[in-house]
Every structure is written in C-alpha cells, then in structure tokens.
Amino acid sequence: MYRALIGTSFTAIALILSSPGAAQQPAAPAQDSDTPDQTRLDEQRTSPRVPLPELPEIEDEWKDLFAEDAAEDDVALDAQDAPVDLRYEFELGPISRLKSADAFKSLSALYAERGKVVPSLAELQRRARTDSELLARLLRAEGYYDPEIVIEVDPTARDGLLLVTATVDTGPRYALGDIQITVDNEADRALVEQKLALEEKQPLVADDINGAFDRLRLGLGESGFPFADVENPDIVVDHDTRTASYALNVKLGDNSRFGQIQVDGDPLFSAKHLGRLARFKPGDVYDTREIEDLRRALIATGLVSTASITPRRGEAQADGTVPVDLIVTLTPAPQRTLAGQLGYSTTDGFRIEASWQHRNLVRPQGQVTFRGVLGTEEQRLSADLRRSNWKQRDRTLAARVEASVEDRDAYYARTLGLGAFIERETNLIWQKAWTYRFGAELQASEERDRSLKIAPGFAPLRTFIIAAAPVQIAYDGTDDLLDPKRGFRLGGWASPEASFQDGFFGYTRAQIDGSAYLPMMDDNLIFAGRARIGTIFGATRARIAPSRRFYSGGGGSVRGYGYQDVGPQDDEGDPLGGRSLMEFSLEARYRFGNIGVVPFIDAGQIDTRPYPRFRDLQFGAGIGVRYYTNFGPVRIDVATPLNRQQGDSRVAVYVSIGQAF
Questions:
Q1: How confident is the prediction for the chain on average, in pLDDT?
Q2: Which segments show compositional bias classed as Basic and acidic residues (predicted)?
Q3: Which of these CATH numbers, 2.40.160.50, 1.10.1140.10, 2.60.120.200, 3.30.70.140, describes 424-657?
C-alpha cells in the first residue's frame, strides 16, 4: 500500500477534517410534559421541515460518498491559512534515480504546475493525492507493489515559494514465479519458449512481460505459424510470496510454407516480376517479415499507390505443411511526370531545364526520361532508360543517349555520347551498405582547350573519340542517406579509357572519396569531415580531352569558388584542368529544433601532375543554415574564398537538398 502525507517539514501532522460545531452541549432543564415549550419542542422533533440537530457522539463531518477521489484518512493537510499568492517548488528527491522518474515528470500535476499560483492548500492536497496514485501505478509497472510514498510540504516560504518534496520507499521488487505454457503440439514447445523468452525469478516488469507476449506472436508468424491462436496470458500476483504466476495457452495450428504469388485485378506487374521482387521462393518457411518487405518493395517502385497482400491457405501436404498463396492487389500511381526548372547564377548565368518522364513505358519498370537544358554555358538533349529490378531485385539496367554543347571557362565542347550500365543503387527506403556500377561509354566530341592558344584569344578545335569502361564501388556505413549523424562512407571508381586524337592512346582515371561523422551532445552537434583524391595517369594533360580532366570548385567541392575556379590558370585566367585532385572539408552541424547552423571550411587543389601534392591549397570558409524536413534538410550555404584569385567573387551562395556530404 502507499500513503501520501501533507504536513510541515518540522512535524508530520495527520489532521482529521472535523466539524467545528461538534462539541457536546449541556442538557436542558427538565420541563413539565404539558407546558407550551414542551409542546413546541415535540413539534420540532417530529416536523420534517426542521433540520436534524447535531449528534454529540459524531465528531467528524459527514463525507460525500459520491465525491471523486475522496481523501484517504492518511492524507492530511496542514491547518493554516493559505497565503494570498501561493506558489511552490517541487523536488523529486530519491525518485529521480528510478526508471519511472521521466514518466512521472511528464504526467505529474505537481511537477507540471510548479512555480505557478495555487488556488489553495486544498488544491495542493488534491495534486499530491493524484500524484501519489500515479507514482504507485508507475512503480507497480516496474515490479514494486508495496511502495510507501510521502509527499511533504515545507510551509516556510523561501523567495515566495513553498517547498514540496516527494520521497518513496519502493519496498521489495516482485519477481516472476511459475510459468505454465500449454501448446497443442508438444514438439513445438521449444519454439514457443524460445520466442517468449521469459524466465522464473526475473523482475516483474510490465514492459518486459508485455514485450515477451508481443515477441511470441511476431516470432510465430516469422517461423511458419502465421495463423497461431495465442490467448492472453493469465497473470496472478501473490503478495505473500511477492511473485506472479504466468499461464499461457497457445494453439500453433499448421506449419505454413509460401505458395504461389497471384495477381488480382488489372495486373500492373506480372506474377513473374512480383516473384523477382520477393525475397522468398515457393516452399520457403512462411515469414510475415517477408510479406512486409514485398509490400514496401512494391511501393518503392513509384508505380504503386497502395498494395494489398492477402494470404490464402491451401490444402495440407503429405509432409504436414500447408502452402499459403499470396493474393496481390495493386492500385496504380500516376506514371507520368512533367517537370521544369528555371535558375540564374552569377557565375553560370541563366539555366532552363525541362523533362518528361514515364515510369513504366517499357514494362516492367522501364522508366524513360527525355530532358532538355538551355543555358548560358550549357545546352543539352538526352534520353535515359532505367529498368529497375532487371532480372533480379535491386539490379538496374541503365542506358543513355545525349547530345550537348558546353561553353565553360576551361573549354568549349560539342559532344555526342551513349552509354550502358548495370548498377545496384541505394534509396531512401532501403539504404544499402554496398553499391556498385559498371558499364561502357562511347563519346565523340569536338573540344577547344582555351589554355592551348595558337594565337591571342584563339584555340583550335580538336576531335576526340573516347571509349571507356568505368567501374564503381561504394560502402555506406552511416545511419541516414541525406542527413548522416554517425558512421562513415568510402567509395571509389576507376575508368580505363582509350582515346583517338592524332592516334590511339590510353589512360586511366581514378578517384577515392571518404567521409566520416561523429555525434556529440545527444546528436545535436555533428562533426563531419570529407576527403577526395583523384588521379589520371597514362597520358599528358595536353593529350587528354579537356572535358575528361579534373576540376574543382563549387557547392559540391570547395565552397566559395565557382565551378572550375580552383586550380592553376593561364595568363588570361582560364582554368587549365589537371591530372590530380585533392579536396578536404570540415563541418560542425549544430541543430536546435528544425533549424541548424553549420560553420564549415573547405580546401582543394588541382595539379597538372598525376599525383596530388599538399601545397598550393585554396581555402573557402563560410556558414550555412539547415531547415530539417521529413525528407531531408534544405541546405543554404554562404561562403567566401580565403585566397582569392583574379576573377573570383567575394561571396558565393549555394542552395540544395541534403547535406553537402
């Protein structure tokens, strides 16, 4: 049992709320029976309109039996006049060391209203009684069934505040006693006990007991018994032994196996393609997790708005198992998208982009995108095909045909290219640890290297025909795709290339990227770092097509500089491009609520040699703002170059979705 005590800190006063007019009165003098006064007295005693006199043998006021939460006898209130402006401070005392302290704080009336005006000491008593009952319930959930709870009030106001203190003696903790499990098939008892995972003498904690029951129901569905009948357990608490018995009745039913996948209604996908998306085969042990995985895979295609998967039991087989067919009903989502963008940059000028996309033009999951770009420095037309889950789940076949014209500070290029790739990519629903990409590219271009001038202000056009076989692999050990807080990422790619320009020659381009994230202050502060190193070996810089060289600068590399503005330049300030690349970034991401502030510093270098050297680094620094949404942070960075070159702007602004790295 528990008790709540309201009194002074000097002495514990148990005050019985008594009637002030309950004192006994002396007896009236005797009168003759026939006197008028006696007659009037008799009428008063028998008249229903006259209130009953106070009974001398009853000293307490009558309690209202219908009042909500009538005060218990052991809850007392100090009998003193309440101050005009009654406020109090509340201290939990030893309660703060209990696991239930946080839950108590969130629900406590005393804790929530501390420091505020209290109408009366009676209201303070009501809050104490309510909080005592609340704390008792919370302690029972932790296995303490015999706590003694004391709430004391120090009436001596300090700085205008009374002091209310709550202390508790939890008493002994109850434990789980006898566990009785009844199953319809004794051969499966071990499975039930394994999934339930309860032991005698373990603390009688409500979350653990309820969690074990939920774990059993889920575990049976994951082990071939999706139709098991698990009744609610019968739990009996014995206060004499301070234990609780646990009785459970389980009817497992038939052992189920996956059957066939069937499509109901107008088929968006064939049953064969649904089989590719499923991570199970007919005959595998039925697992409810695989059903949810298939449903999420269907939604992830972008072609399905709702997916319903209904199990249907079949006939029992000779081995005693029962096949369960899956009836899949899909509601198509809109399959076409028309999009456009309009932008302006002080470094790149105007840029207009438009695209049309059909996500299932080549069935199944054959996404076709036509895209056009019209800008000051770039014009581009392209057609892309992406067949997701091609031949197997999580594998994508991608192909592209593109024609482009680029007029950059470093070069001018007219290019026609095509390529085909096979890749395994990550996404927001399933962030994969390992991804890869490999394929082939063929490119024909006419390019003008502005650094190779044969006359003032003039560089000749050269024709390049390039065949490449790029290979890429990456590992992602972070906790979030767009906003990582811990872990690291490491990736690299290599592209052996054969080029024809005044004869055939070959070279290899390669790059390694890595980033790491360190959380602090309960994940409100994240230190993030990034490094990138690249090299091109096998040919001189002059022979390599300008569009295939390394460049640095911009929102994805060294902020504060424009695109291609980091690295060596010719006498007219045009970027040379290089055969090696080196970049570093450091950020401190501090978040409060949905807003974040990110100071950062970047460094980078381009070298005409094949291997980077740790010198002539160019630095950019600035500060960013993040607005955190459900799909990721919106990023706004403002940066300035710390060692500007001729033509560099003093300030650069970058806007995008997701962190910089």
A1: 85
A2: 37-46
A3: 2.40.160.50
Torsion from C-alpha of 28, 29, 34, 40, nearest 10 degrees: -20
DSSP symbols for 490-524: EEEEEEEEEEESSSEEEEEEEEEEEEEEEEETTTT
Q: Is the pLDDT of residue 407 over 60?
A: yes
Q: How far apart are CA 436 and CA 365, in angstroms?
A: 20
The answer to whether 29 and 38 have CB atoms below 8 angstroms apart is no
How many Å apart are CA 329 and CA 308, to the nearest integer?
Answer: 5
Q: Is the pTM of this model over 0.90?
A: no
Give the model confidence (pLDDT) of 456-505 as tens digits: 767 889 999 999 999 999 999 999 988 899 999 999 999 999 999 988 99
Identify the CA nearest to 526 among candidates 452, 469, 591: 591
Cα–Cα distance between 434 and 395 in angstroms, integer? Answer: 12
Q: Please name the fold of domain 255-332.
A: Ubiquitin-like (UB roll) (3.10.20)
Where does the pLDDT of residue 279 fall: very low under 50, low under 70, confident under 90, or very high at 90 and above? very high
What tokens were used for 129? 């009684």
Q: How far is CA 525 from CA 484, 485, 522, in A?
A: 12, 9, 7
Six token digits for residue 439: 């394929």
Helix 189-196 with 206-221: angle, nearest 10 deg: 130
Biggest CA pair distance of the chain: 147
pLDDT confidence tier of residue 548, bands split at 50, 70 and 90: very high
pLDDT number for residue 657: 85
